[in-house]
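Ops channel
N.P.: pipeline sanity check, posting one input/output pair.
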């Protein structure tokens, strides 16, 4: 199939919207439905409805992925791409949670804060089943029922507001959380083109990879993951820093850290930006870069924690997610494999071995991030690009990896990566990882098979394009833009 220009964008927009609508329609039958819905809207269905639901969801997802892939070759500009984002997100507005039960944890934790429970010591199971947030607590995935919150006070403050406004009733609380998710998408769509222009990249290509990405739509608009809010605040903070407004940028990154802690990586690279722009000698630039942004972000962290009233327990819960094994984590898989091998050979407990390998993976990620920051400070790497690479390294070496974690680095690299292999790899991985999880939130073995098949198909397609067998625009090629790169943007 050959894209002939921007005129095809409208065709792919409609195709993608139809795919998204089919995903949502299927989700009403096989989505991550609550254990109990007092409104009777999101309820379990029989075998026939579930079979149709699975067919719609997987068929629609494939249509959405294909439409996105071809839309990237249609040469649409920023306005057209933002219009496409509206079309593709609209079907998710009233959908039940899809591909994850995490939103139920968010609601239950908000109700816990509202009722005075310590969310950093207890899990959602402490809630009264008949009280506010009780239905949400009953719908939480079994791994998380007794697990303390790994999220920061700013997000829990928002979750508390949702619980207060909706009484913790499942349907309105989920829809309120979706409003936060859509605001996050809007923030990402606002920041990406501006960051792309600041780096001399195509704004349209940045929106295609970073905002129209099916992985983002499925897991933020559909699954309501707070990673979207973290990414949106982080991108906005970096953009402000690029424009010379590093105080506001540091504050936004502080808020992003108070959603999810990985945003702290952005603070390091923002420090590099501030230090490089500072006047004076090397010592003064280093001191200003390291101290000033950290002081601003630190003040935001303290004030947010005090305002939320949750205490500083979040510092000690950042490792709780690592206790849950996810097959996408290379360090966890290797550690578990070595541990089991040693158990067969010497009868030892595999868990200490697994933990040791996980810690080695995290240590390697820290070293890589510091090396990227050093190269950025030395002028051999753009700091924002280094941030994107650092976040990808963190995810690759993390003890817990979920499909949507790829979005941390992709959201940044969409605006900074030049055309080439990196964008191609991110595009193929994004298309593949949407299949790893079922609409119900479970992770079946065939999900990995589907993801592998998509990776192979994507690699073959790209190989064919390079060989001239398919004449289309690569994901990394510069797309037509509406205004010159860098227009109207101050990067000091």
């Amino acid at each position: 199939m050959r894209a002939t220009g921007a005129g095809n964008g409208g065709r792919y927009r409609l195709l993608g919207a139809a795919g998204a609508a089919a995903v949502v329609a299927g989700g009403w039958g096989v989505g991550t439905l609550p254990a109990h819905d007092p409104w009777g809207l999101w309820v379990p269905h029989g075998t026939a409805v579930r079979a149709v639901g699975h067919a719609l969801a997987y068929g629609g997802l494939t249509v959405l992925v294909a439409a996105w892939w071809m839309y990237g070759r249609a040469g649409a500009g920023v306005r057209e791409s933002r219009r496409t984002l509206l079309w593709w997100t609209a079907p998710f507005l009233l959908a039940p949670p899809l591909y994850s039960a995490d939103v139920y944890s968010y609601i239950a934790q908000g109700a816990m804060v509202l009722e005075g429970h310590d969310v950093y010591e207890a899990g959602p199971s402490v809630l009264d089943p008949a009280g506010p947030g009780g239905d949400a607590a009953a719908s939480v995935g079994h791994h998380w029922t007794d697990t303390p919150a790994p999220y920061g006070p700013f997000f829990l403050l928002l979750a508390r507001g949702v619980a207060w406004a909706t009484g913790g009733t499942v349907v309105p609380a989920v829809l309120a959380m979706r409003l936060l998710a859509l605001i996050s998408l809007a923030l990402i769509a606002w920041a990406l083109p501006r960051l792309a222009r600041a780096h001399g990249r195509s704004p349209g290509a940045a929106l295609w990879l970073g905002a129209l990405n099916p992985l983002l739509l499925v897991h933020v608009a559909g699954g309501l993951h707070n990673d979207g809010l973290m990414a949106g605040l982080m991108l906005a903070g970096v953009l402000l820093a690029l424009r010379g407004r590093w105080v506001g940028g540091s504050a936004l990154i502080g808020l992003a850290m108070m959603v999810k802690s990985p945003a702290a990586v952005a603070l390091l690279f923002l420090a590099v930006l501030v230090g490089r722009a500072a006047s004076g000698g090397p010592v003064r630039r280093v001191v200003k870069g390291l101290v000033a942004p950290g002081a601003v972000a630190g003040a935001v962290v303290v004030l947010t924690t005090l305002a939320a009233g949750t205490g500083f327990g979040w510092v000690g819960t950042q490792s709780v997610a690592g206790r849950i094994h996810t097959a996408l984590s290379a360090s966890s898989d290797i550690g578990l494999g070595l541990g089991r091998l040693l158990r067969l050979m010497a009868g030892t407990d595999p868990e200490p071995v697994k933990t040791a390998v996980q810690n080695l993976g995290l240590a390697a990620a820290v070293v890589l991030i510091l090396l990227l920051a050093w190269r950025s400070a030395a002028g051999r790497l753009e700091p924002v690009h280094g941030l994107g690479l650092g976040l990808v390294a963190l995810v690759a070496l993390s003890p817990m990896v979920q499909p949507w974690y790829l979005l941390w680095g992709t959201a940044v690299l969409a605006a900074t990566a030049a055309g080439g292999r990196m964008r191609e790899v991110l595009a193929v991985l994004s298309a593949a990882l949407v299949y790893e999880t079922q609409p119900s939130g479970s992770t079946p073995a065939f999900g990995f098979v589907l993801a592998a098949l998509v990776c192979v198909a994507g690699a073959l397609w790209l190989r064919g394009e390079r060989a001239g067998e398919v004449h289309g625009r690569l994901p990394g090629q510069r797309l037509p833009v509406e205004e010159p790169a860098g227009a109207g943007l101050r990067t000091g």
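N.P.: looks fine end to end. The CA atoms of residues 94 and 175 lie 7 Å apart.
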